[in-house]
Amino acid sequence: MIGFLEGLVVTLKTAFRKPVTAQYPDPKKRLAVAKRYMGFPALLWDEDVDEPYCTGCMVCIRNCPTQCMTAEMKDNPKFADDTSRRRKIVDYFEINLGRCILCQICVDVCNFDAIEMSHEHELSKF
User: Fold this and answer.
1) Which domain CATH number covers 90?
2) What angle do CA 100, 110, 48 make, to 5 degrees?
3) How far is Cα 9 from Cα 18, in angstroms, rounded to an integer?
């Protein structure tokens, strides 16, 4: 009987404690991320011309040690209209996040500053 009461006391103590875990998509409890946090690479967008900064030189793809990036280029229709200086633009750009090792080589070798390491840390979403 004493063992039963001891167990009941432990249960009652823990029942009224503040929970240790939190529900994941709770907007009130956002994780604070340090400014120096380096997330996955992201393609930058030129808002003035409404197109990416990427010119399709593929230097980032050739220098990636894990070959996690793929891209396809297309002729820029705005170049023919003389509203853009970029002859080619990205039609398809994908990074396999499972293979990326966050080495930042793609950012370092890009001559046009078209890629940056993002600060995104919440990759799981509903």
Assistant:
1) 3.30.70.3270
2) 110
3) 17
